[in-house]
Structures are given as C-alpha cells and as structure tokens.
Design a protein that fits this description.
Oligomer: single chain
Number of strands: 7
Number of helices: 14
Protein name: Methylmalonyl Co-A mutase-associated GTPase MeaB
Mean pLDDT: 87
Shape: globular
Helix content: 40-55%
Bound molecules: guanosine-5'-diphosphate
InterPro entries: GTPase_ArgK, P-loop_NTPase
Radius of gyration: 29 Å
Strand content: 5-15%
Organism: Porphyromonas miyakawae
Structural class: alpha/beta
Family: Belongs to the SIMIBI class G3E GTPase family. ArgK/MeaB subfamily.
Distance between the termini: 91 Å
Order of helices and strands: HHHHEHEHEHEHEHEHEHHHH
C-alpha cells in the first residue's frame, strides 16, 4: 500500500497520531527497589587475640584457621603483624605433614585429580589442606586455582580445608603467603598439604621450594609428549603421572609414560638418589590412585631413611629466609620516595647515553643509602 509521507497529512494518516490510539500505554511506574538490601548489616567479625587464634588453630578450629589465613593475606600492617605472631606460635606445632606440590597445564585435570586424590586420602583417615599458587591472580586479582567449586566432593568434607590462591602484588608475595598458610594448616592437624599450581610459569620454583614431593600431571596423545612443559619443570618432578588413562586412551597413556621414562633417563641423577617414577591413572574414573600414593609413601621412606627429607626442609627454610630478605630489600628500595623522585631522570640520562647503566644504578643506590642514613638520624 502506498504510504502518504506528505508533511501535512502524515500526522493524520499514521494510526499512532490519532488521539484515540491506545497501542502503547505508559503506566505510572512504581519506584524501583534499592539495589542494596536496606536491611543488610555487615557482619562484624569478632577480633580474636593472638592466643585465641593459636588455641583455636591447635584445636583444629577451621573457622579460626580460615580467619588467621585472612590475616596473612591482609595488606594491613597490623593484620600482618598479628599473623606473624600467630605463625611464630604455631611453628613448633607444624611440620608433621606430607607436603605435595601438584602442577599441570590447564585442562590436564588438576582439579578433577585433586578431588579424587583428596577423597582417597580422607577415606584413609587423613586430613587434607588444598592450597594454591596462581600466577595469573597477580594480573586478574582473582584466582582460578584452589577453587572449591572445582573440587565438588572434597569441598563437602569436613576434613578438607580448601583455600584459593592468595591474590598479591608479586609471585614472591603470593608464594610466601601460601608457605605461611602451610604452617597454620599443619598446626591445625592437617597431615597432608596439596599446593596446586599451573605448569606454565615460574610459580613451580616457588612451589618446589615449599613441598616435599613434586607431582607433575601430564597428558597423552598431544603429539610430541614433551611439548608445552618446560624441561626445568620435568627436572623438578619426583613423580610424573599421566592422566586420563581410561577408555580408548589407555594405550596412548602407556606409550606416553614410556616416552617420559626415556626422557627422564637423560636427566642427571637426583641428589637424593630417588629415581622419579612415571605412572598412568585416571583422575575422573579413580583408576590407579593407590599406586600414586604408594609412590609418595615410598619416596617419603626413601628420603627419610637417607636424611634427605629433613635436609630438604632445612634448605627450604633457609631459601625462604633469603627470599624474604631479597623481597623486603627490593620493596624498600623501589618504594622509597627519594629513589622514586630520581628514577625517571636517571633513566633518561641512560637513554641519552649521558651516563652508563652502572653509574645510574650506583646513583640510585647512593640516594637510597643516604635516605636510610637520614631516616636513622631522625
Ligand atoms: P584443570 O584445568 O587442570 O583443573 O583440569 P580439570 O580437572 O578441570 O579437567 C579438564 C577436563 O578434563 C574436564 O573436562 C575433565 O572432566 C576432564 N578430565 C579430568 N580428568 C580426567 C580423566 O581422568 N579422564 C578423562 N577422560 N577426562 C578427565
């Protein structure tokens, strides 16, 4: 039908221009409810004393344990101070656990496996803490590891304590918080600690320096079996486990296992004398789980008998002391206002070839030392 677009007649021809038209009626609205619940009262968390926290943790009170971990993760100086006191008091009660690092690329089945491993241990009467170091949380602020929703069965168990990766400004900071959390978990009676991480970054070194046994999850059937995982990570592994050995994948998993065994032959002997083992399993169908924990037990006996177990822990403790010193010094340097004020100028001088990088570094360090002396005189 031909429409009339004649200016004068348009207002009449269009049905919506008819005053009697009721096609669209706007009702008087009701006021939108507030998006924040007006009855909501933020729950005031009772502050406990250091001794109350310690006593609660030693009794295995998970709620207090959890709150103490929050203090460790806090950015408030007063919280951190209190956390340090709690850690110190818990330290004599810690150490009685098997600390197991679990790594694997995303999709390798870490969460499925941890769920299954955890249920296996809990059925045997163990108490398990699952912690995580997630390097991506530095960027995203959130965490993908150690997430309860990924460990369905385990998250319902009262003998399992699951804590996602702390968010933090540096990997070193995040890792230190996890290490401190291990101490509290042990004091609370958790005899097995899993520290989960993704097998793609530097976080493995941090995890390796806080666990007794390092477990690497791998997959079969991805073409070149050794691809996607750094040689360094394989070298750290005390056990390599090939996941998804179920259904049609069993043969491929076995083949991958033999590839890994061959590859391991080329690595230098480990200091402890332990020969890393390669096993196949299915995290989803819970096949081969007992063998994995038999291997870990075997490792424990092997290294305890040779004195290596304690030696490794002592070295780790020393490593953490130096790590902490390095981190603290670095932060103190880069956060100093006087250093910050000069930094850009020195950088520009270097870019314009007016001074060498070494001279530039010396200038900044001198400024820092001078600032320290000034502060000391105050
Ligand atoms: P993550 O990213 O390493 O934590 O891996 P997930 O545990 O989320 O597993 C990734 C995918 O692999 C999921 O779809 C799982 O269902 C699947 N998966 C995990 N373990 C197994 C297994 O043992 N067998 C098979 N067939 N699939 C598995």
């Amino acid at each position: 039908m031909q429409q009339h677009f004649d200016k004068d007649s348009a207002h009449i021809d269009h049905p919506e221009n008819d005053p009697a038209y009721q096609g669209l009626k706007v009702n008087r609205g009701i006021k939108a409810p507030p998006i924040i619940n007006p009855y909501f009262k933020p729950r005031k968390r009772r502050r406990y004393t250091t001794d109350e926290y310690v006593a609660g943790i030693l009794e295995g009170n998970v709620s207090l344990l959890s709150q103490a971990v929050t203090l460790i993760e806090s950015t408030l100086a007063s919280d951190r101070h209190m956390a340090q006191e709690i850690i110190e008091k818990c330290l004599p009660h810690s150490g009685n656990s098997m600390r197991i690092g679990i790594t694997g690329v995303p999709g390798s089945g870490k969460s499925t496996s941890i769920d299954t491993f955890g249920m296996h241990l809990i059925k045997q009467g163990h108490k398990l803490a699952v912690l995580a170091i997630d390097p991506t949380s530095e960027v995203s602020g959130g965490s993908i590891l150690g997430d309860k929703t990924r460990m369905e069965a385990l998250s319902r168990e009262k003998n399992a304590f699951i804590r996602p990766s702390p968010a933090g400004d540096s990997l070193g900071g995040v890792a230190r918080k996890t290490r401190e959390t291990i101490i509290l978990c042990e004091a609370a009676g958790f005899d097995t600690i899993f520290v989960e991480t993704v097998g793609v970054g530097q976080s493995e070194t941090a995890v390796h320096s806080m666990v007794d046994f390092f477990l690497l999850i791998q997959l079969a059937g991805t073409g070149d079996e050794l691809q996607g995982i750094k040689r360094g990570i394989m070298e750290m592994a005390d056990g390599i486990i090939i996941n998804k050995a179920d259904g049609d994948n069993i043969d491929k998993a076995k083949l991958a296992a033999s590839h890994f065994r061959n590859a391991l032959q080329l690595f230098p002997a480990t200091e402890s004398g332990w020969e890393p083992k390669v096993l196949t399993y299915s995290g989803y169908y819970a096949i081969g789980i007992k063998d994995i924990f038999d291997m870990i037990d075997q490792y424990r006996h092997f290294t305890v008998d040779r004195g290596f177990f304690d030696l490794k822990r002592q070295r780790q403790a020393k490593w953490w002391m130096y790590e902490t010193i390095n981190d603290t010094l670095k932060n103190s340097f880069y956060e100093d206002e006087r250093v910050k004020a000069l930094q850009q100028e020195i950088e520009e001088c270097i870019l314009q070839d007016r001074i060498t990088p070494f001279k530039g570094a010396q200038k900044l360090l001198d400024t820092y030392y001078q600032a320290l002396r000034q502060d000391a005189r105050k």
